[in-house]
Amino acid sequence: MAFLRLKEVPTWEEVNRLFEAVLDRFLPEVRDLEEMANIKRKVRSSVKGEEIGRGSYYGLREVVFFGLLFYTGCRISELLSIRKRDVNFTKKTITIKQLKRRKGKELEREVLIPPKVEEFLREYVLKHVSGEEGRLFEFSRQRAWQLVKELTGSVLGRELHPHVFRHAFAVQLLKTTKDLEKVRRLLGHSNYDTLKAYLDYTIEDMRDDLLKMFREE
Questions:
Q1: Is-above-0.85 flag for pTM?
Q2: pLDDT under 50 in the chain at which residues?
Q3: Going edge to edge, which strands form the sheet with 87-88?
Q4: Structure confidence at residue 42 (pLDDT)
Q5: Secondary structure percentages of the chain, helix, strand, coil, to 5
Q6: Structural domain boundaries of the chain?
Q7: Which CATH number does 2-215 carry?
Q8: 114, CA 20 to 30 Å: which among 96, 166, 185, 191?
């Protein structure tokens, strides 16, 4: 199953390209797409004949959502479960409640707040998330999937499932650290079975190392 999904994993360059596209469509004064819809209705009523495409722009919520999806390795269900109290700006971490339990025990792990997302997250949490128990994202999994499909379809020309970004993060982390244990801990896996599939995607690193070894002989 993991191998089949990995066939569609975007490259890290594509991930960065997607986030750049999100930032290009970001309107700083808009909270979310619902507020954007109200603005569009007003514009349509005042600008006759001009059509403004749905999803053309993003609010602060969508920037934070995509940033955390792309750069934390979290499952979509984990992202949608994050509450205000889980975000620690002092430690620059987010506590993730894993929905998969082990022996009936609830598990937690910490992920780093991505540097390129930190200021957006800070503004969003402080201005728009009410109470310590407030969820960061008050929308369904179906809505999350729709946001991802719309963005990836328009930018990459193919619609991707949210879970592939967890794989992309894992592959890039493994390439960078070459440490399966770090990848396992950050993604919250209980063993290495799933992680072995990522090794196929780092073979170019081995090739580079081998070629370097032969050149030095």
A1: no
A2: 1-4, 42-55
A3: 87-88, 93-102, 105-112
A4: 46
A5: 60, 10, 30
A6: 2-215
A7: 1.10.443.10
A8: 191
